[in-house]
Amino acid sequence: QVQLVESGGGLVQAGGSLRLSCAASGRTFSSYVMGWFRQAPGKEREFVASINWTYGNTYYADSVKGRFTISRDNAKKWVYLQMNSLKPDDTGVYYCAARDTRATKWSSWGQGTQVTVSS
Fold first, then answer.
1. Among 47, 36, 41, which residue's Cα sits nearest to residue 4?
2. How many CB atoms lie within 10 A of CB 99?
3. Longest CA–CA separation in the chain, Å
4. pLDDT tens digits, one per residue of 65-110
5. CA 113, CA 118: separation in Å to the nearest integer?
6. How far apart are CA 105 and CA 84, in angstroms?
7. End-to-end Cα, the chain, rounded Å
8. C-alpha span between 28 and 86 (Å, rounded)
9. CA dihedral defined by 94, 98, 104, 107, rounded to 10 degrees?
10. 7 burial class (0-12, 13-18, 19+ CB within 10 angstroms)?
11. Fewer CB under 10 Å: which end of the chain, C or N?
12. Rounded Cα gap, residues 109 and 112, in angstroms
């Protein structure tokens, strides 16, 4: 069973940076896609970024392109989200997620980590 544990959230001023980490365990992830989602108060959860575990190809929401970078450490089974030039609109709970490359539904989720960007 896949387990995902996020860390690295916190309070930062607008224009600042944070790096989120996600520790993945429970299986091999060679056929998986790892992703980051976020949910702001009163809003639906939205996609932020994803990375193919084996090939490393990445995708980003338009709202974070050029500011956020997703990466992974295959050996340690960690996934990262480097967030730069943060804006108050980036505030929310950030979730790590995983799915099989052949699936459309994200099957595993972490518990989330809070990111608050002050203006």
1. 36
2. 18
3. 41
4. 999 999 999 888 999 999 999 999 999 999 999 999 999 999 999 9
5. 16
6. 28
7. 40
8. 33
9. -90
10. middle
11. N
12. 8
